[in-house]
Amino acid sequence: MLDRFNREIYYLRISVTDRCNLRCTYCMPEAGIKLKSHQEILSFEEIEELVKTAVRLGFYKFRLTGGEPLVRRGIVQLVQKIAQINGVKTLAMTTNGLLLDKYAKELKAAGLSRLNISLDSLKPDRYKEITRGGDLNQVLAGIKAAGEAGFTKTKLNVVIIDGFNEDEKENLKEFAADNNMKVRFIKKMDLKSGDYYGVEGGDGGNCSICNRLRVTADGKIRSCLFSDDEINLRQEGFEAGLKKAIANKPKKGHKSLKREMIQIGG
């Protein structure tokens, strides 16, 4: 479907949980967030029906996000259900990689197309600092497992923070190349100030070609990361909500004050 600025909207990002096993400084406040109850989070049945509805409207690219999607119980089964829906051409997942060592083979067998793995530093102490406690070795094991499971065209997502890790760009490029990955550098964004940038190595941040909608874990659909406009899919209905989100998609982003990044899915 085309929006009012003649952009083709075919990409739906679906957050399956607001929980995460890391507390990255650019994603979650130090004090944490108030987590949604189980009843508030979209069920697998609702997500499956949402994808079927989106496919009927012309969507064909889907991405599972979080929080951290791999902490959602039964995530492999959800991947399998979505992958089997006729019309789903690409089913990707963005993950911090901590649990990939456990799940990579199962995800590949279930039909997951691609992975984006977040890694902001190759220095253990620095990684621990930015993630508030993360173990770099777990991510490296997950990246290795993903390759061994047969995932190709994997992307390495690197958030660049001025004065912190910009000195690692060349090393991260080499690491990505050595592991047959494509690296994307994403300058730290600020939802509340409206600071956002183009993605080096990707299309993100270019409003003129934005092709995506975002669904939060509690069933609200957003047509722009940097906008607080939300549509309650449970109240509106999936088809009506998707159509309304496309019709109301802004020309460009501004600010978002109501949610933290972890509550939107990035």
Automatic annotation (TrEMBL):
Taxonomy, superkingdom: Bacteria
SMART domains cross-referenced by the UniProt entry: Elp3 (SM00729)
Any GO BP annotation: Mo-molybdopterin cofactor biosynthetic process
Cofactor(s) required, per the database record: [4Fe-4S] cluster
Keywords, alphabetical: 4Fe-4S, GTP-binding, Iron, Iron-sulfur, Metal-binding, Molybdenum cofactor biosynthesis, Nucleotide-binding, S-adenosyl-L-methionine
Matching PROSITE patterns: MOAA_NIFB_PQQE (PS01305), RADICAL_SAM (PS51918)
Boundaries of every Radical SAM core domain copy: 4-225
InterPro entries cross-referenced by the UniProt entry: Aldolase_TIM, Elp3/MiaA/NifB-like_rSAM, MoaA_NifB_PqqE_Fe-S-bd_CS, MoaA_twitch, MoCo_biosynth_MoaA/MoaC, rSAM, rSAM_sf
Reactions catalysed, as given in the entry: GTP + AH2 + S-adenosyl-L-methionine = (8S)-3',8-cyclo-7,8-dihydroguanosine 5'-triphosphate + 5'-deoxyadenosine + L-methionine + A + H(+)
Gene Ontology terms, MF aspect: 4 iron, 4 sulfur cluster binding; cyclic pyranopterin monophosphate synthase activity; GTP 3',8'-cyclase activity; GTP binding; metal ion binding
Designated name of the protein: GTP 3',8-cyclase
Enzyme class: lyase
EC number(s) reported in the record: 4.1.99.22
